[in-house]
Amino acid sequence: MKIALAQMAPVWLNREATLEKITGQVEEAAAEGAQLVVFGEALLPGYPFWPELTNGAVFNSDVQKDFFAHYAGNAVNLEDGDLDSLCRTAAQQGIAIYLGIIEQSADRGGFSLYATLVYITPDGLIGSAHRKLMPTYEERLVWSPGDGHGLRVHSLGEFTVGGLNCWENWMPLPRAALYGQGENLHVAVWPGSQRLTEDITRFIARESRSYVVSVSGMLACNGIPDDTPHADLMKAALKGAQPDEWLADGGSCVAGPDGNWVLPPQVGTEGLYYVEISLDQVARERQNFDPAGHYSRPDVTRLKVNRKRQKTVRFSD
Questions:
Q1: Most-buried pick from 78, 85, 142, 195 (CB within 10 A)?
Q2: DSSP codes joined into one string, the chain
Q3: Which residues are catalytic?
Q4: What is the pLDDT of residues 95-127, one digit of tens each?
Q5: pLDDT at position 101, please?
Q6: pLDDT band of 73, cuts 50, 70, 90
Q7: Rounded-to-integer distance, Cα 207 and Cα 201, Å
């Protein structure tokens, strides 16, 4: 199977312009024969870089409120069909997509935001939407904790694919939840840095005896639009940085089921990177270690997973 890694910068915090750029990447990947294209964490409409640059922990700050309102205004509402055009493109091109979005949900009030990894099938259907279980560090000032509803795998060609967001990939039990469903192609999405991807990608591949595809976003200092609220504060915090210096510089890579690089980390360049993978390589490595098969002991240790979508209210009429 041929996979495309779309390492790209968003039109930062602009949902419609970023979606147009993503659609172009999907069409190009499909034209090159890819069956799956993967994009970075929170790419639509972008990763929240501002808290660490603008005193994000100051309580009741008008600056932070302005940033958040702008972010929420460009977030993705799946129920309202904000990804319908991308789903149509997937169906027209016959390609599957993993995409990191910032999601807002009407059934949670419509304003709290989730870092969500969406899987779109080659038929153009949303197969799963996994909300990041635990935002990391300053992300907790912007994103809400998710739930287990999206801990699901999908059949794609000969493979069974699943995915997690960023540092969720360091969480043993969510990984185990995917392994236990037969995952043999793991997708990990990131905001963008080789230091994030270079260790965990090979580690998960070796642990799971699966292919691991890590895809990162990018953003240069000059990628902060002037019409972003308080853009001047962000740029002042970056004073001394070169305009083309990276806030997120990529690091997309692929490891094989033996833990060796299929594609080493790619840094500092936007573009589509392609790899071809074979299920035979998974079978070879599962011969001596299969984490959910012969090398598991469910009579001794088992994992319980709650996949209900969290809701504040449940009605019985």
A1: 142
A2: -EEEEEE----TT-HHHHHHHHHHHHHHHHHTT-SEEE--TTTBT----STTTTTTTSTT-HHHHHHHHHHHHT-B-TTTTTTHHHHHHHHHHT-EEEEEEEEE-GGGTS-SEEEEEEEE-TTS-EEEEEE-SS--GGGGGTBPP--GGG---EEETTEEEEEEEGGGGG-HHHHHHHHTTT--EEEEEESS-HHHHTTHHHHHHHHHTSEEEEEE-EEEGGGS-TTSTTHHHHHHHTTTS-TT-EEEEEEEEEE-TTS-EEEEEEES--EEEEEE--HHHHHHHHTT--TTTTT--TTT-------PPP-S-----
A3: 41, 132, 166
A4: 999 999 999 998 888 999 999 999 999 999 999
A5: 98
A6: very high
A7: 10
Both tokens of 183, joined, read: 């995952």
Q: Specify the pLDDT at position 314.
A: 86
Phi-psi region at 90: left, alpha or beta (left = phi > 0; alpha = psi -120 to 50): alpha
- pLDDT (0 to 100) of residue 185: 98
Helix (H, G, I), strand (E, B) or coil at 229: coil
Terminal-to-terminal C-alpha distance of the chain:
48
Q: List, for residues 7-46, the tens digit of each pLDDT value.
A: 999 999 999 999 999 999 999 999 999 999 999 999 999 9
pLDDT at 299: 95
Do 214 and 254 contact (CB within 8 A), yes or no?
yes
- Does the reported pTM lie above 0.85? yes
